User: Fold these one by one.
Assistant:
Number 1:
Amino acid sequence: MLASVLVVEYGDLADSWNLSIPYYANYLQDASLMFTTPSVPQRGLGNRVFNLFLGATVGGGSTVNGMAYVRGAKVDYDTWEEIGNRGWGWDELFKYFRKVPYPLLVGAVGRLG
Ligand SMILES: Cc1cc2nc3c(=O)[nH]c(=O)nc-3n(C[C@H](O)[C@H](O)[C@H](O)COP(=O)(O)OP(=O)(O)OC[C@H]3O[C@@H](n4cnc5c(N)ncnc54)[C@H](O)[C@@H]3O)c2cc1C
C-alpha cells in the first residue's frame, strides 16, 4: 500500500557552502537560516538568560550545526541506559564511536579507546 507523508518544516531547503564545510556554520553569513529563542533563566549562572540558536531551514539545527564531535563521558551514556534507554549505554555505543573518523585523535585512539 502506498502512503503519503506530509513533512512540515520551519524554513526552506538550503544548499550553502556554509552548511557543508565543518565549522563554517559558526560563520554563517545568511541570518535567514537561523533564529534565536531565549533560554529559561539559568539558576547556576545567576538566572541569566541566553539566546539559543536554532536552524530556520529544512533539518533545523542538524543542518546548520558546526559538525564538531566530542565523545561524552561514559557515566552519562550509562545513566541514560539506567533510566530505561536500553542500548544507549557506553558498552553498546562504543563500537559506533570507533567508526567516527577522528583525525585529530589518530595518535590518541590507541590510548584513549
Ligand atoms: C550554529 C550551531 C552550531 C552547532 N554546532 C554543533 C556542533 O559543532 N556539534 C554538535 O554536536 N552540535 C552542534 N550544534 C547543536 C546541534 O545542531 C543540535 O543539538 C541538534 O542538531 C539538535 O537536533 P534535534 O533533532 O533535536 O533538532 P533539529 O535538528 O533542530 O530538528 C528539529 C526539526 O524540527 C523542525 N521544526 C522546528 N520548528 C518547527 C515548526 N514550528 N514546525 C515544523 N517544523 C519545525 C526543524 O525544521 C527541524 O527539522 C549546533 C547548533 C547550532 C545552531
Number 2:
Amino acid sequence: MPAEIAVTIALADVPEGTMHGCAAGGREIVVCRTKHGIYALDNICTHAYARLSEGRLRGTRLICPLHGASFDVRDGRVLGAPATRPLATHSVSVVGDRIEISAAPADPKPLAL
Ligand code: FES
C-alpha cells in the first residue's frame, strides 16, 4: 500500500489502454493502465501547460495533446521532444476493486495485474 494515499479511483474506471485524470494532494495526476501494469504520473506536461490525460496513450507511451511530446509511463522519462524534463511518478496499488494513488512523487514501480 502506498504511503500517504491521497486518492482512490475505481479500477473499472480505467480499462486497459486508457487513462484517467484525478487530483491528489494539490497535484493533478494521470493514471495510465497498460498491459504491463498501472502507473500514475503528474498530469501536466513538463514542456508548457497541457493535461496529458487529454492526449493519447499508446502502449506505455503517453503523448501530449498540445505539441506532441511523449513520455514513458513506466518511469516518466521523455521519449520525444519538445519536452526535456521527465514527469514525476506516483506509487499506486490495487486494493480490491480500487486503485490507491499517493500524491508524493515516488520511484516508479510497475504494478502488474
Ligand atoms: S505542452 Fe506538452 S509538448 Fe508542449
